[in-house]
Design goal:
Length: about 140
């Protein structure tokens, strides 16, 4: 049975945080289920989110709610294997909107650690703002 695999205890790392203000804009805000908090990257490209799940899981889809004007463009997902080698899973192209967007993996993948990479942004300076991140699937 599928469910959300990310929560306040999820292992999340990000490429940067705006003005290094972790308490205001850190990665914990991606999964805190509060509508008024967010991860806000600093400027520059690429930006990324690394997700380290508690256990190997079958991942079906990723859901992201950006702030319009600060959305990712030309994005991809890479998995990291047990030897820390990266493998490309899929490319995806978000819209520059505030609503929740769903990105289904082309084939269910068994993952424990992966990165969502935002190669560029709709913001001139390369900043990304995300209010919500959900990884849906089931532990193996």
């Amino acid at each position: 049975m599928s469910g959300c695999l990310t929560n306040k205890d999820s292992g999340l790392r990000v490429s940067s945080v705006l003005r290094r203000a972790i308490k205001e804009f850190g990665p914990k805000h991606l999964v805190d289920e509060k509508e008024d908090t967010c991860w806000n990257s600093d400027q520059g490209s690429p930006q990324w989110i690394e997700v380290n799940l508690d256990s190997l899981s079958n991942i079906e889809e990723i859901q992201i709610r950006f702030q319009g004007g600060f959305a990712g463009k030309d994005c991809c997902i890479q998995m990291t294997d047990e030897n820390n080698a990266n493998h490309h899973i899929m490319d995806f192209y978000p819209e520059d909107v505030n609503s929740l967007q769903i990105f289904k993996l082309p084939k269910v993948k068994s993952l424990k650690k992966f990165k969502i990479i935002f190669n560029n942004s709709t913001d001139f300076f390369g900043r990304i703002t995300i209010y919500e991140l959900k990884v849906l699937g089931a532990p193996i």
